[in-house]
């Protein structure tokens, strides 16, 4: 009886392994989408580009990016200052990176430069402690 | 002896591949010999002439049913996997459509610039410099069309007024905003379209 059961298990082992692999692959895919890194990076990149498009040289901008930092932390990003927000003044492009190895970029059409961009952790807004992105908008500095 | 070998071989293949049909799919023709039979047992067998094999000791009908079920297994796995992926991609992969907001912002910026400044539209650079707009970015994914008293005085970027008019019909067409301003008895019509999409980069 035991031999029969073990034979049945052996016969179906390959199917069980395939099923397990399939479940793992699908589970990983769904879980990676649930973390929302791509969606939040997209949202922050576009909203920040709007702020820059509407800004004038001399403006100092403070943006609440608390949700972005939470997602980035969940996804294993360690160096918030260098990784989450990146700006390329040469190409008028800004990027948000909220997961390892992937960033979402968007152009801003306002011909200005962004300097002193940095993330301030635990910044107080309306008596609440939030992580914020701060930068200065200046006139184009490149030649 | 030969008959015995054939029987052993057939049992081996029967255990390995279950049915005659599957054997013909997986194996290559070869001659049956004592050596090949030995190799077959040690799984180094290259294949053989199956027509001569004697199939006994197992039910072909039952095995065929088993194989049929394995096709169903793979088919169901594929269907389920594809359905889950499509569902998740539709739900989470949709881009945050920012084109209308972009078009409104640009239109507003140009309108305010026209209102405050004297712009020489014959020189493109004058327009971009005065309005603080980046020509490269606009040329890539924005469309600007300006008319002064029914005369086209400025046009830039991918897209055209027809695409703007048909924006509701096709999701890929740019989202557009129109505005009009009267300045020094001249009527300016401004149409702005935005078609910028996010860019995913490795980094």
Describe the protein.
The complex is a heterodimer of chains A (143) and B (203). Chain A folds into two domains: 1-34; 36-139, no CATH class. Chain A is an alpha+beta fold and 143 residues long. Chain A has helices at 2-34, 37-54, 66-74, 80-83, and strands at residues 60-64, 85-88, 93-99, 102-107, 112-125, 128-139. In chain A, α2 runs antiparallel to α3. Chain B is an alpha+beta fold. Chain B is built from eight helices and five strands. Chain B has helices spanning 2-17, 20-26, 34-41, 60-92, 99-116, 124-131, 135-141, 161-165, and strands at residues 142-148, 151-156, 175-183, 186-194, 199-201. The interface between A and B is large, with 37 and 38 residues.
* Main beta-sheet annotation of chain A: 3 strands, antiparallel
Mean pLDDT of chain A: 88
Q: Unreliable runs of chain B, pLDDT <50, ≥5 residues? A: 10-32, 41-57
Distance between the termini of chain B: 68 Å
The secondary structure category of chain B is alpha+beta
Order of helices and strands of chain B: HHHHHHHEEHEEE
Taken from the alpha-carbon principal axes, the silhouette of chain B is rod-shaped
Series of H and E elements of chain A: HHEHHEEEEE
Instruction: Give unreliable regions of chain A as ranges.
Output: none
- The helix content of chain B is 40-55%
Architecture blueprint of SSEs:
The complex is a heterodimer of chains A (143) and B (203).
Chain A: H1 2-34, H2 37-54, E1 60-64, H3 66-74, H4 80-83, E2 85-88, E3 93-99, E4 102-107, E5 112-125, E6 128-139
Chain B: H1 2-17, H2 20-26, H3 34-41, H4 60-92, H5 99-116, H6 124-131, H7 135-141, E1 142-148, E2 151-156, H8 161-165, E3 175-183, E4 186-194, E5 199-201
Helix pairs in contact in B: 1-3
């Amino acid at each position: 009886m035991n031999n029969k059961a073990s034979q049945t298990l052996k016969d179906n082992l390959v199917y069980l392994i395939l099923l397990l692999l399939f479940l793992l692959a699908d589970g990983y895919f769904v879980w990676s989408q649930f973390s929302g890194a791509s969606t939040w990076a997209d949202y922050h990149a576009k909203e920040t580009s709007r702020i820059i498009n509407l800004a004038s040289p001399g403006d100092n901008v403070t943006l609440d990016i608390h949700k972005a930092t939470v997602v980035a932390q969940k996804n294993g990003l360690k160096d918030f200052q260098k990784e989450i927000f990146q700006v390329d003044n040469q190409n008028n492009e800004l990027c948000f990176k909220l997961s390892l190895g992937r960033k979402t970029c968007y152009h801003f059409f306002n011909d200005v430069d962004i300097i002193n961009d940095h993330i301030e952790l635990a910044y107080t807004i309306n008596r609440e402690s939030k992580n914020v992105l701060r930068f200065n908008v200046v006139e184009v500095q490149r030649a | 002896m030969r008959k015995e070998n054939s029987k052993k071989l057939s049992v081996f293949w029967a255990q390995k591949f279950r049915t005659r049909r599957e054997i013909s799919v997986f194996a290559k023709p070869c001659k049956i010999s004592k050596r090949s039979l030995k190799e077959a047992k040690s799984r180094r067998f290259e294949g053989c002439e199956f027509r001569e094999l004697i199939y006994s000791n197992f039910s072909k009908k039952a095995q065929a049913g088993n194989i049929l079920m394995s096709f169903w297994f793979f088919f169901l796995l594929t269907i389920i996997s594809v359905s889950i992926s499509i569902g998740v991609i539709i739900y989470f992969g949709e881009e945050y459509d920012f084109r209308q907001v972009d078009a409104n912002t640009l239109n507003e910026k140009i309108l305010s610039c026209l209102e405050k400044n004297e712009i020489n539209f014959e020189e493109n650079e004058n327009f971009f410099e005065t309005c603080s707009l980046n020509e490269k970015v606009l040329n890539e994914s924005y469309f600007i069309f300006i008319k002064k008293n029914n005369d086209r005085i400025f046009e830039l970027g991918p897209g055209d007024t027809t695409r703007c008019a048909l924006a509701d019909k096709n999701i890929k067409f740019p989202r557009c905003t129109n505005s009009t301003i009267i300045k020094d008895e001249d009527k300016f019509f401004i149409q702005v379209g935005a078609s910028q999409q996010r860019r995913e980069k490795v980094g």
